[in-house]
């Protein structure tokens, strides 16, 4: 009886060991890369070791299984392994990658077009505001054009000159005499200082 139990136990152990060995061999076979090489007669030969110009056949990085993002991740990993193993021929990228790139280019183009349109609309709005301000301040086409260019010119009134200067720093020195009121406007500071001289509210002299 003991001999029979011993033989049965030994069979169980051998069977279990065989299953473990088969499982290990199966996992190694599944995980191994298969390389397609040119044989002596020109026919393809498949082997588990790299050969000159070998193409990894298994696993397929361009498999259509899973989402496009998953396919791209698998392809990148396969490319990393290819470079690490010094295999010469690149692995084809997943078919969905080009579509993904095309959609991204379309999104980028649409975003760039929207930004350009927004900038054009803002520039047009600013132009209309400038034109409205020039039409309101300027007494003549000549002064309105100078206001649009932000450039004071001789003959402008003080109000027209202020519109042309458009918020620049102005320090006013005013002199009152029997001949009327004269003003000196100091525009800016330092080397960029400009002087405007008014007699009775009319710009008569510009000194840079």
Numbering strands along the chain, what is their spatial order in the largest sheet? Answer: 4-5-6-7
Assign a percent range to the helix content: 40-55%
Query: Can you tell me the residue ranges where pLDDT is under 50 for at least 5 consecutive residues?
Result: 2-6, 18-32, 57-62
Strand element count: 7
Broad shape: rod-shaped
| Assembly annotation | single chain
User: Helix and strand string, N-terminal first?
Assistant: HEEEHHHHEEEE
The count of helical stretches stands at: 5
Whole-number average pLDDT? 78
Number of domains: 2
Strand residue percentage: 15-25%
Rg for CA atoms: 42 Å
| Helix/sheet category | alpha+beta
The largest sheet is: 4 strands, antiparallel
**Terminal Cα span:** 123 Å
Write up what this structure looks like.
- With 208 residues, this protein is an alpha+beta fold.
- It folds into two domains: 31-107, no CATH class; 136-207, Beta-lactamase Inhibitory Protein, Chain:B, domain 1 (2-Layer Sandwich).
- Helix content is 51%, strand content 20%.
- It is built from five helices and seven strands.
- The chain has helices at residues 2-31, 68-84, 95-137, 141-148, 158-165, and strands at 34-38, 44-47, 55-58, 170-177, 180-187, 194-199, 202-207.
- The strands form two sheets. The chain has a four-stranded antiparallel β-sheet with strand order 4-5-6-7, with no helix packed on it. A three-stranded antiparallel β-sheet has the order 2-1-3, with no helix packed on it.
- β4 (170-177) and β5 (180-187) form a beta hairpin.
- The longest helix has 43 residues, at 95-137.
- The chain starts with a helix and ends with a strand.
- Mean pLDDT is 78; it is low at 2-6, 18-32 and 57-62.
């Amino acid at each position: 009886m003991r001999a029979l139990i011993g033989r049965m136990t030994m069979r169980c152990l051998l069977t279990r060991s065989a299953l473990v060995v088969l499982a290990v061999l199966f996992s190694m076979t599944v995980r191994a890369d298969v390389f397609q090489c040119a044989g002596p007669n020109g026919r393809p030969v498949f082997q588990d070791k790299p050969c000159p110009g070998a193409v990894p056949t298994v696993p397929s990085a361009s498999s259509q299984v899973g989402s496009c993002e998953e396919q791209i991740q698998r392809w990148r990993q396969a490319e990393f392994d290819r470079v690490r193993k010094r295999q010469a021929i690149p692995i084809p990228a997943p078919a969905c990658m080009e579509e993904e790139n095309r959609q991204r280019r379309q999104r980028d183009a649409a975003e760039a077009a929207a930004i350009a349109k927004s900038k054009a609309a803002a520039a047009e709005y600013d132009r209309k505001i400038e034109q409205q301000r020039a039409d309101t301040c300027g007494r003549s086409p000549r002064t309105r054009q100078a206001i649009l260019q932000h450039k004071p010119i001789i003959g402008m009134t003080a109000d027209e000159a202020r519109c042309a200067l458009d918020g620049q720093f102005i320090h006013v020195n005013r002199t009152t005499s029997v001949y009327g009121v004269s003003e000196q406007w100091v525009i800016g500071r330092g080397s960029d200082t400009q002087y405007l001289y008014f007699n009775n509210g009319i710009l008569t002299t510009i000194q840079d």
